[in-house]
Amino acid sequence: MNRKWAHGAIAALVLTLAVGTHAWGQERATPKPKDAGPAATAAEPSADQADKDTAELAAVAIKRAAKANKYMFVLAYRTEDEPTKAARKILAAVMEKCADRALSTTVSVTDPLERGFVGEYGLNRAPTPLVLAIAPNGAVTRSFAEPLDEAQFDTAFVSPCTQKSLKALQERKLVFICVQNDQTQHNAEAMKGVREFAAEANFAKTTEIIPLDPADAAEENFLKQLKVDPKTAEAVTVFMAPPGATVASYTGETKKDVLVAAAKKAAKGCDPKSGCCPAPKKPANPPAQPPGQPQPQQPGSAEKKL
């Protein structure tokens, strides 16, 4: 899917759920620039030369990380300049601390072999160096632009439901996060409208239903971002739209007609160029980032914002 950048969380949802408001290493060592050698006058390696240190294409590396249930940090760069060298150094330090949870790789945005990956993620227009954090399920959870800070990388690791939400939003789907468990009331009533909405021909292929147990400690931060009390006595349904806007939140019963009206209202207020309307699979704009995070700016702006 097309994910474009930005700054810190994907500046997803990288955005207002990133999404709060608006529309959301492999086992080998992190590649490092080639040693210039003892000769003081040795030329700096070009981006293409440095990229030869990468043993596999980024797409392959990401699949390998997913198979190992690890995140992948992708360092994208154009030239082997000082900012790129500094980014490599920071990423190497990060990998020493989180090798059990993530792998890393590098991508030269000018490498013809990486044209597909670069185009898919919009890196050809992104400011570099830039690091993308990609979850095991393929969702971009954050993007980090220079100057990089080791502490930033901790925010790339998000909960399972956050990953699922980001993935769906970045695929330009409408998302229903259904917060309920065996302790909440009106669960069936809360699901009725959602299921009927998802069964509609106009929405069937572009709707994702994500159950979330409010008692799951791993989802505590996500619930906070969604503004849902983890001790809620009633089922709560949060309706989100790409790239990461919260359309509405419902306590208890949901009705299909109300959800359809909310979806239409949200669509009317969306700019097709923003990527907020469900449509073709690969998003043309930056993915949403976790709720509460700033949204990435669009390509061409001074700064951007998984």
Which H/E pattern describes the elements?
HHEHEHEEHEHEHEEH
Radius of gyration: 20 Å
Low-confidence stretches: 1-55, 279-287, 294-306
Helix count equals: 8
Morphology: elongated
Terminal CA distance reads 12 Å
Structural class: alpha/beta
Helix content: 25-40%
Could you tell me the strand content as a percent range? 15-25%
The CATH topology of one domain turns out to be: Glutaredoxin
CATH homologous superfamily designation of one domain: Glutaredoxin
**Strands, total number:** 8
Protein architecture, described:
This protein has 306 residues and is an alpha/beta fold. It has a domain at 163-274: Glutaredoxin (3-Layer(aba) Sandwich). The chain has helices at 47-51, 58-67, 82-98, 115-120, 160-170, 187-199, 220-226, 256-268; strands at residues 71-77, 102-108, 130-134, 140-145, 174-179, 207-212, 236-241, 245-251. The strands form two sheets. The protein has a four-stranded mixed beta sheet. Strands 6-5-7-8 form a four-stranded mixed beta sheet, with helices on both faces. Strand 5 (174-179), helix 6 and strand 6 (207-212) form a beta-alpha-beta unit. Helix 6 crosses helix 8. The longest helix is centred in the first third of the chain and has 17 residues, at 82-98. It starts with 46 loop residues before the first helix and ends in a 38-residue tail after the last helix. Mean pLDDT is 79; it is low at 1-55, 279-287 and 294-306.
